[in-house]
Sequence to fold (648 residues):
Amino acid sequence: MTLDLPAAIMFAAFVALTLGITWWAAGRSTSARDFYVAGGGFSSLHNGLAIAGDYISAASFLGISGLVYVNGYDGLVYAVGWLAGWPLILFLVAEPLRNLGRYTFADVVCYRLRQAPMRALAACGTLATVSFYLIAQMVGAGQLIQLLFGVPYSVAVIVVGVLMIVYVSAGGMIATTWVQIIKAVLLLGGTAFMALMVLARFGFDFTALFAEAVRVHPRVLAALAAGAGPAEANATLLAPGPMLRDPVSTISLAMALMFGTAGLPHILMRFFTVSDAAKARSSVVYAIGFIGCFYVLTVIIGFGAIALVMTDPHFMTPTPPGQAFDPIAQLRGSSNMAAVHLAKAIGGGWFFSFISAVALATILAVVSGLTLAGASAVSHDLFASVIARGRATEHDEVRVSKMASLGLGLLAILLAIAFEKQNVAFMVGLAFVIAASANFPVLMMSMYWSRLTTRGALAGGWLGLISAVTMLLLGPAVWRDVLGHAEPVFPYANPGLFSISLAFLGIWLFSVTDRSAAGAAERRAFRAQYVRAQTGLGPDRAPRRHF
Amino acid sequence: MPDDDIETIIDHPAFRTLIRRRRRWCRGLTLAMAGVYFGFMMVAAFGRPLLARPLGEGPLTVGLLAGLMVVVVSFALTALYVRVANREFDPLIRQLSGERR
Fold:
């Protein structure tokens, strides 16, 4: 593969633009409050765009269109799940979270529970989620840069890692938020244009688009060759397929996608960048609008890729001698690249470059947001509250946060190299399982269940975190596909059903059996917390240091 | 004194109304959303033939329509919540915070 000049120019222009914003923001972020939550001063529309920007990662854009390209309907199921968690955040989480917290969701959990151990738990949950999420994004970026510039995968991953460390450690939340907003607008515009172009090819007739996809997809052709009727063959692409065969994994996936969204630390941080609960609410509403449209467009793009890319030999590597043509295995740069090939098929070289640059910028922006969330967990939750026990200065805290960004960046580079072969949308699904098992149960119960005590929250939270990570590591995705063992120890790709249930069970059991005086005091404190969560009034008792 | 303050708010009629309405709406809307989504996923897991059924002539299936309906329901419930929050919750919260100043 050779260097793609228009893509290189587009990419360089975008990096220059975002670095300029970072430099500008670095001059404006002077306090810890600026660095973590951009001074709490973004408008609802801006913040809604930034939430959407954080959420509609390139892993969803490249990953879902890639899943649709390979499996058809299964990709649509992922897309629907990634939207379905959002109304729940709106109804249950956004407003009380904004009323109770300040920088990280750990502030909320600590409102009436014991500081140090709860923050340690929240920080570990955050770091585990962020790490898995980072891997997915970095793998997507690595494959894309490799395809565009012809550099080796490891070099590509290192470039992304270094850029990300620069953005986060120099600019903090103001820079990440503006990068996120610009990128969200470009990505939404780009996907809308692509979907329109696809539909235009088929005279804006959905039936014609799907008919063409069904006509060329190898799975349908295989079913027809095996003697299936037309309706049955049609259903191999347009009804639940191989990823949804096993009910346990399907239900686990549903739980992980629905509850994981409300446990993603970098998303929860976005509710603190607005001034009050009403604004947190309206930013979520904007975000839901953008996210919903984006996923519908991405699914159209995926089916468009089947119809327009699959039959075009330009996008395929040569068929190995003695084998039949396979448009899934032979797609250049793996199925994750289906959407960028489609951009070339419908818009030519410059549009291809534009979409690639936007996808790369998306990944950079999302990894920056993730790294910032991870770094805040280390500096604000672990360092300032647990290690320095409130004696650290603001300056120390920001310095630790920058060091943590560096550490996370290096870790992400190493893990991305190890996980090169994984499907990115699937990897994001795994990050959601951890968020849904470790963060979501503790957060929900601390806001809504008066009988929760520190003992119960710790037991359930650790149980959820450790069981989710262990089952993931022993499951097919890591034990078999990355570590190379023949059979996974834990049979299901997605452990959500078990780990989420364990977390809630642990929280309940260890809270109701807690007879300590401290536990009783924590139960009494629920009333004040409840008033504040519902109205924003009352004592701001989350132990805060004064900046 | 903050404890007295909390008790005054808790006993305030506006707060009681707020909590009662919000609890009812949030519970109902959450159950509706979770019901629709988990219902869809349960059918995907156990009732594949239903989703595979063709929708009229041509390639479209019931499954595609069902997926689209989950998106439409998400939008509709979101719009409903915002309407209720702006009309019913916000005035009560404003009343409470106004009386404390």
